């Protein structure tokens, strides 16, 4: 529905308009039984009283012939029986029947009130307005056909309009209350649906974050494996000690890669608070261990961290660690054996700057590993999500430079 339909939804028919009477609730059965008994009882008692020599039924009808009283009885009884279907689409035909009946019927008074009330509850306001005007018109005709003893024409008409107005207002109040309850229920259902959508989006975001973690962690480890395996391949005459050392590094790197993979995949099984960072989550203080790990693989790393790692926000530190990790991995892939300089500097309020440089590779001596190039794309996205920026490329000094700036709030 559009906004206009939502704003004026109270004018629309309720779901009860097309409901099946066989699907009534226990409360509906009790109410319908009570209304039916009242309508039938009033019809029987009113007719019996009007047939007495001196009727005392409410306000006695003077001069009503017997045939009119009996006609009133049978017509009113049909209307009372029709009240069983007042919750269905037969309400409008029943209302039209009672509208005609109200021009002369006294016995159908309760039936008429019930029908007016039902129309006010279950039909749109324009339908109620038309029905109200029609009933008001028949109320003007009624005192002419069935004059009351002791009351003038205008008194009878006024009292009829009062009862009609009370039934209409009562029904409108009930309808408004039901619409209010329905709107509350609709809001609750919409809020629940929106919550489920937010949960689904959070899961999707978390999967993307886990995928980035898996790439950053495993690419670093696997590049070490590839580097040492390549060294063994190009040195078939390596000494037993060199083979043993390389095999040990390969075994340790493979073991660490599996351990990191278990930690990353483990986040799919753990229940953690919403928004909490997922392991493994290194900090800026672990850059020294990262550099030592690369040096053990034969990479010449010059690490210069000009900030206190403890003062850097955790989120910024994690992002900086991943950038340095990916920079060292790229250096091993594309420029094995090159001298890599890593500088980390900055201050609160000015931001954190990470600068990684190594000589531009010559002759295509780098190790070919699937997925080359995707790491820098992921780092650019990671830096942007952190509110920073990242650039990379060849410098005039024939170096490959990877530079990132990350926000560091005061």
Automatic annotation (TrEMBL):
GO molecular function: any one? ATP binding
Q: Where are the transmembrane segments?
A: 29-47, 67-85, 94-119, 125-145, 157-176
Q: Which InterPro entries match?
A: HATPase_C_sf, Sensor_HK_TwoCompSys, Sig_transdc_His_kin_sub3_dim/P
Q: Which reaction does it catalyse?
A: ATP + protein L-histidine = ADP + protein N-phospho-L-histidine
Task: Please give one Pfam family short name.
Answer: HisKA_3
Q: Does the keyword Membrane apply?
A: yes
Q: Does the keyword Ligase apply?
A: no
Under which name does UniProt file this protein? histidine kinase
- Which species does the entry assign this protein to? Paractinoplanes brasiliensis
């Amino acid at each position: 529905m559009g906004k206009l339909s939502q704003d004026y939804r109270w004018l629309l028919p309720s779901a009860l308009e097309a409901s099946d009477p066989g699907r009534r609730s226990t409360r509906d059965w009790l109410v319908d039984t009570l209304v039916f008994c009242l309508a039938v009882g009033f019809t029987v008692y009113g007719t019996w009283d009007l047939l007495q020599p001196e009727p005392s039924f409410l306000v006695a009808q003077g001069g009503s012939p017997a045939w009119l009283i009996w006609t009133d009885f049978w017509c009113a009884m049909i209307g009372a029986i029709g009240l069983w279907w007042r919750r269905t689409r037969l309400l409008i035909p029943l209302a039209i029947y009672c509208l005609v009946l109200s021009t002369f019927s006294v016995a159908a008074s309760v039936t008429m009130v019930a029908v007016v009330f039902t129309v006010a509850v279950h039909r749109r306001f324009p339908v109620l307005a038309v029905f109200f005007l029609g009933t008001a018109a028949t109320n003007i005709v009624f005192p002419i056909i069935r004059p009351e003893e002791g009351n003038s024409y205008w008194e009878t008409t006024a009292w009829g309009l009062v009862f009609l107005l009370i039934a209409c207002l009562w029904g409108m109040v009930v309808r408004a209350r039901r619409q209010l309850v329905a709107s509350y229920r609709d809001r609750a259902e919409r809020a629940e649906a929106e919550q489920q959508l937010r949960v689904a989006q959070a899961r999707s975001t978390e999967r993307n974050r886990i995928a980035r973690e898996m790439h950053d962690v495993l690419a670093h480890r696997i590049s070490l494996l590839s580097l040492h395996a390549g060294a063994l391949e190009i040195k078939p005459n390596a000494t037993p000690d060199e083979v043993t050392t390389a095999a040990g590094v390969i075994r340790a790197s493979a073991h660490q890669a599996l351990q990191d993979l278990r930690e990353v995949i483990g986040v799919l099984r753990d229940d953690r608070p919403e928004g909490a960072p997922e392991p493994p989550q290194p900090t800026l203080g672990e850059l020294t261990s990262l550099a030592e790990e690369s040096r053990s693989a034969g990479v010449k790393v010059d690490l210069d961290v000009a900030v206190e790692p403890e003062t850097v926000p955790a989120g910024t530190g994690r992002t900086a660690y991943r950038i340095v990790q990916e920079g060292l991995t790229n250096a091993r892939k594309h420029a094995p054996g090159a001298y890599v300089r890593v500088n980390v500097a900055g201050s609160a309020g000015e931001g954190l700057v990470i600068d990684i440089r190594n000589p531009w590779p010559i002759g295509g001596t780098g190790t070919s590993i699937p997925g080359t190039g995707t790491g820098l794309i992921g780092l650019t996205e990671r830096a942007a999500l952190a509110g920073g920026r990242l650039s990379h490329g060849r410098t005039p000094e024939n170096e490959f430079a990877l530079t990132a700036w990350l926000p560091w709030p005061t």
